[in-house]
Amino acid sequence: MSSTRTNARKAAVQALYQWQMTGQSLVEIERQFIEEERLKDVQKSYFTELFHGVPKNLAAIDEALAEFVDRPVDMIDPVERAILRIGVYELMNRLDMPYRVVLNEGINLAKYFGADGSHKYVNGILDKVAQQKRTVEIRSRAQSPR
């Protein structure tokens, strides 16, 4: 996966975290990121897709998460919640991206931004969502010769 796309995910985690914590408008947060030049070396179109796509699809994303988390979604650590929401968004809306890539990126984001061990939590939840949302892809991968 390209580093500019990985950087887009990192920026999206930070922007979604800010949105979750402050309730500021998406437009205002995105303007700040642009003005502060926090989108250098970032695939800007992917950042925009994630940053606007997660809130737009929030009900469906949180419903998918709620099935597999051990507490209300709003009670999940805000950093982990932002990472999980991005991962679920990608699992549900970016079928062109292999589910293993989505899981790996989520794990790496949790290692980068999260508390010690949060990558295990993120991996477990995203894997369960993938099992449900990407059943056909997972089955075909399991049946294909290696």
Keywords:
single chain; 146 residues; mainly alpha; 74% helix
Describe the structure.
The chain is mostly helical and 146 residues long. It contains 8 helices and no strands. The chain has helices at 3-22, 26-35, 44-56, 58-66, 78-93, 99-113, 118-133, 135-143. The longest helix has 20 residues, at 3-22. The chain is globular.
Describe the secondary-structure layout.
Blueprint: H1 3-22, H2 26-35, H3 44-56, H4 58-66, H5 78-93, H6 99-113, H7 118-133, H8 135-143
| Beta strand count | 0
Radius of gyration: 15 Å
User: What would the average pLDDT be, to the nearest integer?
Assistant: 94
The largest sheet is: none
Strand content: under 5%
**What percent of the residues sit in helical stretches (DSSP H or I)?**
over 70%
Low-pLDDT runs:
none
Query: What's the number of helices?
Result: 8
Tertiary shape:
globular
Short description:
Helix 1 (3-22) packs across helix 5 and helix 6 (99-113) runs antiparallel to helix 7.
